[in-house]
Amino acid sequence: MTYTDSFEKGADMGPVCQSCSMPMKKDPGGGGTEADGTHSAKYCSLCYQDGAFVQPDFDAAEMQAFCVEQLQKKGMPRFMAWMFTRSIPRLERWQG
Ligand SMILES: [Zn+2]
Predict the structure, then answer these.
(1) CB within 5 A of ion ligand 1: which residues?
(2) Are residues 44 and 65 in the same domain?
(3) Rounded distance from Cα 31 to ligand 1 centre (Å)
(4) Is residue 6 part of a domain?
(5) Which of 6, 21, 48, 71 is an S-S bond match for 32, by CB 3.0 to 4.6 Å?
(6) From ligand 1's centre to the CA of 25, what distance in Å?
(7) Are residues 51 and 61 in the same domain?
């Protein structure tokens, strides 16, 4: 099953990154890292490293635009990339 298949089917993807919505099990780094070197259960390795966000100045809209761009680089049509990232503003990082 590919990255896009799992999204399309709404399959059980397990926990997703609470910053960018990537399924954690798709994270090549196995999750972000805390300052003490342990893995984060909430954030992926692309968003969170050594206890800090990789893009600390992003807001939810900027994160979504960034992810759409990354998915398009992988060959995904723009409208699909947008659909797959539309839940980003509801994730934990962007609340409050
Ligand atoms: Zn992430």
Answers:
(1) 17, 19-20, 44, 47
(2) no
(3) 8
(4) no
(5) 48
(6) 11
(7) no
Tokens 């962007």, residue located: 94
Dump pLDDT digits (tens) for 7-56. Answer: 545 556 689 999 999 999 989 888 999 999 999 999 999 999 999 999 99
Count the residues in the chain. 96
What separation in Å is there between the alpha carbon of 63 and the centre of ligand 1?
9
Q: Give dist(CA 94, CA 29) in Å, integer.
A: 22
Q: Within this chain, do residues 51 and 18 fall inside the same structural domain, yes or no?
A: yes
Q: Which two tokens stand for residue 40?
A: 């984060």
Question: Three-state DSSP class for 48?
Answer: strand
The count of structural domains within the chain is: 2
Cβ–Cβ contacts within 10 Å for residue 14, how many?
10
Distance 1 CA to ligand 1 centre (A): 20
Q: Is the pTM of this model over 0.85?
A: no
